[in-house]
């Protein structure tokens, strides 16, 4: 008999089957890991996916589902075999399972048990959790993402409601002239960690909202973010008109009508979805005004269910509602005219038994004033018993801004408190820095990261070790930046010489300043250009050079914001700045992570007091970056004289141009007289001792206070527990 005809031995068959089973099981475990965004803040799991195929991992925007879909179970098994990954995969999978089933060992199990039966429902128009899930545009979204990740970490019973944008926000490319181009991608649902949300009856849910022009429908997706379930409303369903099917395609796209319909779906649709899911929240947290229609639908439910009058239901619902306002910039407060409100809320208004005037009154500072449009912030404030701003200074500004709503009160007694924003530490912390924290902080620091005392351990850090860790991260940022710059030049079809030059852009030993955020005009990315010649001197100083990395998108309709980008990006044609002031295109969570982890200095120079909080600087803190900022938003309460740098003294002029001129002057002075000397002043070992002291001081004094764990526990204590428990005292958070 020829060997080929030999029947396989029993052992060989078994081995083959075993391999197949293992390959299949392994693949399933990886798929389970990829299906819960928990992986994104677990470095050891992220590393697993990267190891499967480092090149594709990068090309696929770090999306593990796309990556796995490109591979067969056998290919995965082979790769896992090569790299001996079995144990790591099994361990990660077991850890996820343990994490999801731990219901007693969490902070919330001890401190917020009463929320257990009736969870917090957290509404937000955007959620920024990871670059591979593009349903965010900027700070508000990233804050929401960080909020729910921390809620998960703390074991807080919380469900989140948002919108699913299949085209998300846009991808940014600059042309030869530095003009921003916007490209919308179609995100494939199959490549995202979500599935249809099922109702009580086990069937996918569709909600329907009556308007004067007919019903508007939305289906509901479920995304798992650790222990938190995030429900995303999506209007691309049969039964909607072609325009309505595209209603939730893009974030902050379209006109006023698009906006009100999106907000109708988020607020009213979101509450209906919770009902269909059998979730009965004890607290409604409206994160910014976009979702502020929600209380109207809750009122409707209470009137129907408990036979309450509108006024009684409003009082009850307000008791359960928390409202957070996020900006003093007028354009950030949505307003709709009376026709638009009647078209979209008329049918619900009739069920509530109130007149058009009454409804409009809920959205007006002066209810009877027909000249006033309907403002989402106003209804948010009126329909919630607890309202807050997002930093101490923003609290003062917001109380002044909305004082007319409580004309009989003095400004200090306007019932808007503040809870300063924070960031989700595991999401923004670089792995090498985490290793350092593991060494110098108490063992249980990941469970107690919102506690300031935990961070005092940093005062014992070895200065040389901290400095080396930082410099390794800085090199990583410079590598990333050069790679991006060369890709940008290549895409524009520029000369090979230009592409080549990007390889030597930026100097690893030069003081590196990062500036990245949305290019909203009040953030004044171009402020340093008011002192262009002086800054050029700093950049070109032979012994103590400075370099800048910029990144950020302008809203497609924001022409002034686009012109800022153009001016900064075009500095590459100015020999004084070429290779020393660079612009990285397409700012997103990935670019943000690289930048905040690698810069020496994080620059922020908004026009005071318009930056309600700002959060990117908090991310830099965790990684040893020093903030250099106007005393606005969070920095006004964070700066202590030695944990970073202040631009100016926290003043502003009524004339913006004078303010800008003074701030530019102060920016230049603080760079020349404080930042640069402290960075370049080295001891015998070549260490910048005073600088490292500031790094330690910054990490030790700020990491806990500006962590999302601290923020979420504050919300629980000051808002969620009182709102759920019927405690009737007004919030005292000032
Ligand atoms: C943190 C973050 C922001 C917010 O930055 P600010 O400093 O608050 O303006 C915006 N976009 C991305 C991608 C972020 O990660």
From TrEMBL:
EC number: 2.4.1.1
Reactions accelerated catalytically: [(1->4)-alpha-D-glucosyl](n) + phosphate = [(1->4)-alpha-D-glucosyl](n-1) + alpha-D-glucose 1-phosphate
UniProt xrefs under Pfam families: DUF3417, Phosphorylase
Cofactor dependence: pyridoxal 5'-phosphate
PROSITE patterns reported for this sequence: PHOSPHORYLASE
N6-(pyridoxal phosphate)lysine carried by residues: 619
InterPro entries: Agluc_phsphrylas, Glyco_trans_35, Glycogen/Maltodextrin_Phosph, Glycogen_phosphorylase_DUF3417, Pyridoxal_P_attach_site
Lineage: superkingdom: Bacteria
A molecular function GO annotation: pyridoxal phosphate binding
Domain DUF3417 per the UniProt entry, residue ranges: 28-132
Gene Ontology terms describing biological process: carbohydrate metabolic process
Function: Phosphorylase is an important allosteric enzyme in carbohydrate metabolism. Enzymes from different sources differ in their regulatory mechanisms and in their natural substrates. However, all known phosphorylases share catalytic and structural properties.
Family: Belongs to the glycogen phosphorylase family.
The protein's name in its UniProt record: glycogen phosphorylase
Annotated organism of origin: Pirellulimonas nuda
Annotated gene: malP
């Amino acid at each position: 008999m020829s060997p080929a005809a030999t029947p396989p031995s029993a052992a060989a068959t078994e081995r083959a089957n075993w391999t197949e089973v293992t390959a299949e099981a392994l693949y399933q475990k990886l798929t389970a890991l990829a299906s819960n965004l928990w992986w994104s803040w677990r470095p050891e799991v992220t590393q697993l996916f990267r190891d499967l195929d480092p090149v594709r991992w990068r090309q696929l925007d770090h999306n593990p589902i796309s990556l796995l879909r490109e591979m067969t179970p056998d290919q995965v098994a082979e790769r896992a075999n090569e790299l001996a990954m079995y144990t790591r995969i099994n361990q990660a999978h077991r850890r996820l399972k343990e994490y999801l089933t731990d219901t007693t060992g969490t902070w919330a199990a001890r401190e917020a048990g009463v929320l257990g039966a009736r969870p917090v429902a957290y509404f937000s128009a955007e959620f920024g959790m990871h670059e591979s899930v593009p349903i965010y545009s900027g700070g508000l979204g990233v804050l929401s993402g960080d909020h729910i990740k921390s809620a998960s970490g703390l074991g807080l019973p919380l469900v989140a409601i948002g919108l699913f944008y299949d085209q998300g926000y846009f991808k940014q490319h600059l042309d030869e002239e530095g003009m921003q181009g916007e490209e919308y991608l179609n995100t494939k649902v199959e490549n995202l960690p979500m599935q249809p949300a099922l109702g009580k009856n086990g069937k996918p849910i569709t909600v329907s909202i009556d308007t004067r022009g007919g019903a508007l429908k939305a289906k509901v997706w479920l995304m798992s973010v650790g222990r938190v379930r995030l429900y995303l409303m999506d209007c691309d369903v049969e039964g909607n008109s072609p325009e309505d099917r595209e209603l939730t395609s893009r974030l902050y796209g379209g006109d006023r009508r698009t906006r009100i319909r999106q907000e109708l779906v988020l607020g009213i649709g979101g509450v209906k979805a919770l009902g269909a899911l059998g979730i009965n929240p004890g607290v409604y947290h409206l994160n910014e005004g976009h979702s502020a229609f929600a209380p109207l639908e809750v009122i409707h439910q209470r009137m129907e269910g408990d036979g309450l009058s509108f006024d009684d239901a409003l009082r009850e619902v307000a008791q359960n509602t928390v409202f957070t306002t996020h900006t003093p910039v007028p354009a950030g407060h949505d307003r709709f005219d009376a026709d638009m409100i009647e078209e979209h809320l008329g049918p619900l208004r009739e069920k509530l038994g109130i007149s058009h005037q009454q409804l409009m009154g809920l959205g007006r500072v002066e209810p009877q004033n027909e000249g006033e449009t309907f403002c989402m912030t106003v209804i948010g404030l009126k329909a919630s018993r607890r309202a807050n701003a997002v930093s101490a200074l923003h609290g003062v500004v917001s109380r002044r801004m909305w004082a007319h709503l409580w004309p009989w009160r003095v400004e200090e007694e306007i019932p808007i408190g503040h809870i300063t924003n924070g960031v989700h530490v595991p999401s923004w912390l670089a792995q090498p820095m985490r290793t350092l924290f593991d060494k110098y902080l108490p063992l249980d620091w990941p469970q107690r990261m919102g506690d300031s005392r935990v961070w005092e351990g940093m005062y014992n850090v070895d200065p040389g070790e901290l400095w080396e860790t930082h410099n390794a991260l800085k090199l990583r940022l410079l590598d990333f930046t050069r790679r991006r710059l060369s890709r940008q030049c290549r895409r524009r079809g520029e000369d090979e010489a230009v592409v080549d030059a990007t390889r030597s852009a930026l100097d690893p030993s030069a003081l590196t300043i990062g500036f990245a955020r949305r290019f909203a005009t009040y953030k004044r990315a171009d402020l340093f250009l008011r002192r262009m010649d002086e800054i050029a001197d700093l950049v070109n100083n032979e012994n103590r050079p400075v370099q800048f990395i910029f990144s950020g998108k302008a809203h497609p309709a924001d022409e002034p914001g686009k012109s800022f980008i153009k001016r900064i990006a075009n500095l590459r044609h100015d020999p004084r700045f070429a290779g020393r002031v660079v612009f990285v295109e397409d700012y997103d969570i990935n670019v943000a992570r690289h930048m905040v982890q690698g810069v020496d200095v994080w620059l922020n120079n908004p026009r005071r007091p318009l930056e309600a909080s700002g959060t990117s600087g908090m991310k830099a803190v965790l990684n040893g970056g020093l903030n250099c900022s106007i005393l606005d938003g969070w920095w006004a309460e964070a700066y202590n004289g030695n944990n970073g740098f202040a631009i100016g003294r926290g003043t502003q002029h009524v004339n913006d141009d004078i303010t800008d001129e003074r701030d530019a002057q102060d920016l230049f002075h603080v760079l020349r007289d404080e930042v640069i000397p402290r960075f370049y002043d080295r001891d015998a070992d070549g260490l910048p001792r005073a600088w490292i002291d500031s790094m330690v001081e910054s990490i030790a004094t700020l990491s806990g206070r500006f962590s999302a764990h601290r923020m979420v526990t504050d919300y629980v204590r000051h808002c969620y527990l009182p709102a759920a428990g019927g405690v009737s005292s007004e919030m005292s958070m000032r």
